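Honest question from a wet-lab person: if I give you the sequences of every part of a complex, can you actually get the arrangement of the whole thing, not just the pieces? Trying it with mine:
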Amino acid sequence: METVRLARNAMATRFEVLIQGTDAVRLRAAGEEALDEIDHIDEHLSFFNPQSLISHINAMAATRPVKVDAGTFRLLVLARDLSARTRGAFDPTVAPLMKCWGLTSGAGNLPDSETIAETRELTGMHRVHLDAERRTVSFERAGMMLDLGSIGKGHAIDEAVRILRAGGVSRALIHGGTSTAYAVGRPIGDEAWFVAIAGRRGADNSDHVEIVSLRDEALSVSAVWGKSFEFGGHRYGHVLDPRLGRPVQGAVLAAVVHPSATVSDALSTALLVAGREILDEEAASGRSLVVLEGADGTREVLTLGRTTHISDEARQRDSFYRMGQTTQPYEA
Amino acid sequence: MKRDDKMDRRGFLRKTTMAAVIGISGASMARATGVPRERTREEETMACAIIGYGRQGREIAATVARIPEVNLVAICDTYDVMRKRAHRDAPDARTVGNYRDVLDDEDVKAVIVATPTHLHREIVVEALASGKHVYCEAPMAGNIDDARAMARAARDTPDLNFHVGQQFRADPQYLSVAKFIRGGALGKATLFRGQWHTKQSWRRASPNQARERALNWRLDPDTTTGLVGEAGLHQIDTALWFAGALPTSVAGSGQIMLWNDGRTVPDTIQATLAFPGGLRMIYDAALTTSFDGSYDLFSGENSTIMIRDSKAWMFKEVDAPMLGWEVYARKDRFYREQGIALVANATKLDAQNQDPTADDPNAKPPLFHALQEFADNYFYGPFEPSAGYRVGFEAAVVAFKAHEAILNNATVDINSALFALN
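Yes, you can. This is the full assembly:
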């Protein structure tokens, strides 16, 4: 049995795939094709690439309906459904608000209430019209923007997994920037892929909030790691609640396990925004975890959903993959 | 019969509507500037089929989905896994396993051929004989005889459009640089250089062994045109275009430096094309390193122009004459060099109150422009494609001779007689 590890930079992060099987040459070939698929999706969905389909939609959809391919249309319909399901906590139209608060550049900025109110009129999936018959997208107002960044990595991973399986791969772990991962089958000699969710940025192996077992399912982790900016003596977090148009900190970390990486990616973002508020209803669809932090730094970990895969044995493991940060000390 | 239909459509569009006339100029402008033109007859579509649904076929399907005038009605692939993928990607298009089913379909007006290169000839020649307009991926063929047969077939069916997927020729950024160079921006051209680097094995996997052999045609010495053909042809074609000449010889070498998996096709290659007057193009491609990706440099006595990722910069020599406009242009740093951004459509952007120094917000990938041109030619043509049979044939001949030089570690003459079609 052999293990092959490949990596590629895409979607402003590092994707990595670890594949196990009998023929290293063929495993690598399958992995390369899966990573090619991620490149292909990045080229079409990138918010920052002016040649991408998303940039084309953002430039044109307020003036006329924009025709898109079936795959992108399906993704937009799913994004609309997830936005409704999370009551707007996940919102792929939030980019104008991000810009308004200076969060796109990372510097931070304090807009006045009037500006926030005006900008909120440019957000919301209910203002994105999806015509299923013509397969077109149009915006209700000029200035609206779609940014699929908080769902794109999951979508790319789901499509890459489809390619891996078609190439005959039955054991693999693939992740994008350690924030969304999918486990194909189980690793050699183990019941599942064990993945640790790091408790803080740069945490060592012993500091994890949970070890999750994955088998033919995805895990997404969204975390703020204390990112904030100060303005007028007040400290603002980098997580924006699309429903309020203001930065909030619903949670410091949220993790979701789901059969679809696209869905887990969106739900972990929504849980980070809304925290406890929507945890109960979302947990019903899979395993979820939220870490809340009080003003004094004390932490509360809420774990909901079926937790049977998180065994005592798993908690004792010293060999696992780490999520929620950029290191990956997995030892096969 | 089909040709008559086509001519009727063209005649109708030409003669009956002023809007169509506006459309013609709009189409030309769209290719020249990248600005979306007014659609005059949205209900009119070109029914087309994609033959070959590998990675490039999928890219084409996703791209034509953005072009309202193109109606993708069929996708053909011999492999059922690809047909299933095609159905998922384009549920409105029917999927077939035999390309002749597409050619026999009178409703299909145009085909886009994206099969492995060595299979192009048979499909393209039959498609033209069936009265279909053809867009053929580059390189147009797997060897000189096939390319010549295809070019002859295209030449002998002037009522049908034949476009080769040398897509940079339709890209506004490349057209803009071509204009700069023709306007003397380089001064005397002294050296061209192209690079294509990636770290990939180029191998493909499938649970089906027979399918796996077919998928790996790029590593099969009997079918591949090598790195210089499959990747380098586009950059070599740009050099032929900007030099305005064909090379007279090519020196090449190739090695297997990393992927020792039983292949005989080099994973690292170098080629030097010699043009009349002494100009050289140095080209290197590698599957062994991704460092610095892919780009082209065109150097002259006054400046060097770099194109990468469909963007362009000019690096002026310190003793070069002032051009005037560069004072206002955006400057980007490249280590110790300062690149003057060459933004296609700057005048147009200025007129639209958009920042003329910023990148074009309406930019499209080169493939989009090439396929839009193919659609425009169907509706408003016939006009000479930016990459027609002559351009496709010449670039293919040069790439094949370069591949020959690389395999033999030799210098190979490129006799002008090779470019003759008769």
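Two things worth pointing out. Residues 325-332 of chain A have pLDDT under 50 and may be disordered. The longest strand of chain A covers residues 2-10.
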